[in-house]
Specification:
The protein contains four helices and six strands; from the N terminus they run βββαββααβα. With 117 residues, it is α+β, with helices and mostly antiparallel strands.
Length: 117
């Protein structure tokens, strides 16, 4: 049985695996971000050569290509991409974000080794 609580964005129900009650957060409908808006913001603020954003509900996948990633650790690269999107992550417009960051040289190699399907 699943019922709504008086807390927006939550549902309450029985867990099919453990057989006990659980609370699950829901995606906040109506505040989903447009992929083009995310691409434009990242292009402008990070001065990227290329950026691609895909979505599945409130879960986003970003592939960013730019010289700004040269010499940075993977964590620093991700922090760089997160920064322009933090307000949208905080308000729930973006629930999950997968980031792949490349320098232009790394991107050329990636496309040769793993061509798009």
């Amino acid at each position: 049985m699943t019922t709504r609580l008086n807390m927006p964005g939550f549902i309450f129900g029985d867990c099919p695996v453990y057989g006990r009650s659980q609370i699950t957060t829901l995606w906040h409908k109506g505040i989903q971000m447009d992929c083009k808006e995310i691409e434009q913001r990242l292009l402008e603020q990070l001065q990227l050569a290329e950026v691609y954003v895909k979505t599945d509900g409130s879960h986003y996948s970003v592939t960013a290509v730019g010289d700004c990633f040269d010499g940075l650790s993977r964590v620093k690269q991700q922090q760089l991409v997160y920064a322009p999107l933090m307000s949208d992550i905080a308000n729930g417009s973006i629930h999950a974000l997968q980031i792949k960051a490349f320098t232009p040289t790394q991107w050329r190699r990636e496309k040769l080794l793993n061509p798009p399907v």
